[in-house]
Amino acid sequence: MYPTHPFIDPVAISLGPLSIHWYGIMYLVGFAGFWWVGRIHARKPWSPVKPEQVGDMLFYGVIGIIVGGRLGYILFYNFDAWLADPAMLLRVWQGGMSFHGGLIGALVASWLYGRKVNARFFQITDFIAPLACIGLGTGRIGNWINGELWGKPTDLPWAMIFPAADMLPRHPSQLYQAALEGLALFTLLWLFSRHQRPVAAVSGLFLIGYGVFRFLVEFVRLPDAHIGYLAFGWLTMGQLLTLPMVLAGIVMMAWAYNRNKSATA
Question: What b-and-e string marks burial along 36-66, b requiring 16 or more CB atoms within 10 Å of the CB?
Answer without folding.
Answer: ebbbebbeeeebbbeeebbeebbebbbebbb
